Amino acid sequence: QVQLVESGGGLVQPGGSLRLSCSASGFTFSHYWMNWVRQAPGKGLEWVSVVDSGGNMPFYSDSVKGRFTISRDNAKNTLYLQMDSLKPEDTAVYYCTRETDLGGMDHWGKGTLVTVSS
Fold it and tell me: Which among 46, 56, 68, 90 is least surrounded, fewest beta carbons within 10 Å?
């Protein structure tokens, strides 16, 4: 079955960096666009970034553009999110999701918590 497992979260100081990973299994990873979505404490879901199946077309929300970089290694079935210049408002649970042909998200990981605090 489809599995998405995020890792790499933790506590980091403002201005610091983290790299999240999402290990995918149970489907042909290289065929799908993949997203990162986050949820801050007490708030709703916020789309962060998406990358096409080949890893050549990344898109970002305005809130992270210029600071975060999405990438993927299809040989390793892994999605990444490099997060630099982190701010307290980036504190959230970060989810990896698989995108459907219609632009929805049909599978989600359990998430990894990122806390940005001094």
Answer: 56
Amino acid identity for residue 91 in this structure: T
Q: Measured between alpha carbons, how far is 86 from 46 in angstroms, rounded to an integer?
A: 16
| E-only strand ranges, the chain | 3-7, 10-12, 18-25, 34-39, 45-51, 58-60, 68-73, 78-83, 92-99, 105-108, 112-116
The model's pLDDT over 96-109, given as tens digits with 9 standing for 90+, comes to: 999 998 889 999 99
Rounded (5°) CA angle 42-45-50: 150
Cα dihedral: 65, 27, 18, 113 (round 10): 100
